[in-house]
Design a protein that fits this description.
single chain, mainly alpha, elongated
Length: 571
């Protein structure tokens, strides 16, 4: 196991250096963070101590994660049952899986053009992209070719953003394209055809193809890139963005390197396959037990599964261990917003403001804080600031649409939601927002179209089925049978608010289906008793059950419900 961990360390150290040397800083940061996330090797004295009964606790599978020292989350319970504990699985992220060995390319030796490359990299770091490309003209080494082409691509992106602002404003739509794409595609395709391109060149070629709309070929090229150099996390993320269905994901011809496990887990999360994603991340914890990235991903999965308390605990501990962290904190702010934890959200907003107030994530967190306070104009202002910093920031477009709904600015809300689904057609929140807008506008068929889109993408979210059901039972449609089907789906999807059960009972009662209505009223009463909630719905359910039991001759049961009604009204 120790030798396996050391192999991972060697690979990640080399990757962090090589990626940073090619100005792929996000991928280099990811590799370096993962490197320090590998569980330290136990010293002989520690191993001996762990073997003694007094220090072993609950046994080999009972060691808690470094971020979870107290409490009893469902995640930790699964870890105790062997999801990521000790034993034979600890040597590799997925027990029993044989990984391919990918040699680390030794391309860092300085050659005759090393000084020019160093100068070009310096220009690149100073955002002088065309100067960087100019310095490397005529150099034919693969490393120099990549940086020159990458600098040209970034110069084109920079000019595209400038033209967009000049023509349409910072948040306007524009058809401006990167003018370097055609020349880059021609050059990189030639290199690929002749075999004179490395994995980094393939990565850049895949991005160029994606920007030109050639998604199928882009996927193929990016897969070639990660198969030859699997440590470039940015390349994996580009593949993930092109995997819009599980079928596309399953048909990728990927080598079985251990980095593939991280990709599959992340892709499952993006495709809303939450249970599968959680299982993979738990297994990866066998080696990368100290990884903040994995912890943040697990918290994100739990947030998506509406396990808010468990996710809250992990995010809170992440902030304790890394108080200046901004990555993933926008998701944490969404969680705190959902829990209506104004104090915690205020503290988080203040912290990221002091850390880096011009990060898009920071602006989104502050916007959530103002939204929870009911200051929707200020919230919109900060979402707009986030989008000025990153026009493709999906959450900001969607959440800004929500704010425009609160402000009754329907055209702006529709535009924001449409911009969100243009960026990512799998954003169920934006489709749901569009459904709400059209329902408010009295256009139920349009609303149903968008609600169906959202529920297809997030089939286990009861709120989406309830919204669709309410649309079906609205006055213009009165499609009660369809509404019942939607409420049934909601009731089977962990409807925490209990709306579905009560509505099912009412609708069956309207249709004269007394037995079915009684069945759902009983379930609703049981739910309210467990949750210790008593209100008008409770009275309505008891009254119906009393009348129903009387009508079918079950007088003792009817008397029981009447007595409970008297007890309730006497309170």
């Amino acid at each position: 196991m120790a030798s396996t961990k050391e192999n991972y360390r060697v690979e990640l150290r080399a990757a962090a250096r090589q990626l940073g040397d090619r100005c792929l800083y996000s991928a280099a940061k990811w590799a370096a963070e993962l490197l320090v996330g590998i569980e330290p090797d136990a010293t002989p004295s520690q191993s001996a101590a762990m073997d003694t009964p007094s220090s072993s606790g609950a046994g080999p599978g009972g060691r808690l994660l470094h971020l979870h020292r107290s409490g009893g989350s469902s995640f930790r319970r699964r870890m105790r049952l062997g999801g990521g504990g000790g034993g034979s699985e600890a040597g590799t992220p997925l027990g029993g899986v044989s990984y391919v060995s990918t040699p680390i390319p030794d391309d860092d030796a300085f050659d005759a053009g090393a000084d020019k490359y160093l100068l070009a990299k310096t220009y690149f770091d100073c955002r002088e992209y065309r100067r960087a490309a100019h310095v490397l003209r005529g150099h034919v080494g693969r490393k120099a070719v990549f940086l020159r082409c990458y600098a040209l691509y970034m110069a084109g992106e920079k000019r595209k953003d400038e033209e967009t602002i000049e023509l349409e404003g910072s948040l306007g739509k524009s058809n401006v394209v990167n003018q370097e794409l055609v020349a880059l595609e021609r050059e990189l395709s030639t290199y690929r055809r002749t075999g004179a391109i490395d994995s980094f060149g393939l990565y850049l070629y895949g991005i160029v193809l994606r920007d030109k709309g050639c998604e199928g070929l882009a996927r193929t090229v990016l897969v070639e890139s990660v198969n030859s150099y699997p440590w470039n996390w940015c390349a994996w993320l580009e593949i993930q963005s092109l995997c819009t269905t599980s079928d596309i994901l399953n048909n990728l011809n990927l080598k079985n390197h251990w980095m593939k496990d991280f990709f599959i887990a992340s892709a499952h999360l993006e495709l809303k396959m939450h249970e599968e994603a959680l299982k993979r991340y738990e297994r990866l914890m066998g080696v990368f037990r100290c990884s903040d990235y994995i912890q943040a991903q697990i918290a994100t999965v739990q947030y998506s599964m509406r396990e808010l308390d468990d996710a809250d605990m992990i995010f809170e501990e992440l902030l304790r261990t890394d108080p200046f962290r901004v990555d993933s904190m926008d998701i944490y702010s969404n969680l705190l917003y959902a829990k209506e934890s104004l104090t915690a959200l205020s503290f988080l907003a203040h912290r990221v403001f002091l850390t880096d107030k011009y990060r898009p994530e920071s602006c989104c967190i502050i916007a959530n804080y103002y939204s929870l306070k009911g200051q929707h104009e200020k919230s919109v202002l900060y979402f707009q600031r986030a989008l000025k910093l990153n026009r493709k920031y999906l959450s900001a477009w969607t959440l800004m649409g929500h704010e425009y709904v609160e402000l009754k600015n329907t055209p702006a809300a529709i535009d924001a939601y449409r911009r969100a689904v243009d960026i990512n057609p799998r954003d169920y929140r934006a489709w749901y927002g569009l459904g709400q807008i059209y329902e408010m506008m009295g256009m139920p068929f349009y609303a149903l179209y968008y609600f169906r889109k959202s529920s297809h993408l997030q089939p286990n979210d009861a709120r989406l089925w309830i919204a669709m059901a309410q649309c079906y039972e609205s006055d213009p449609l009165q499609m009660i049978e369809e509404a019942i089907k939607c409420y049934e789906r909601a009731a089977n999807s962990n409807d925490t608010e209990g709306i579905a059960l009560h509505q099912l009972a009412k609708l069956h009662s309207m249709l004269g289906q007394s037995e079915e209505a009684a069945f759902y009223y009983k379930k609703d009463v049981e739910r309210m008793e467990v949750e210790e909630r008593q209100g008008q719905n409770f009275v309505e359910a008891l009254l119906f059950l009393a009348k129903h039991c009387k009508s079918i001759g079950r007088y003792e049961e009817a008397e029981h419900y009447c007595t409970r009604l008297l007890d309730y009204t006497a309170l």
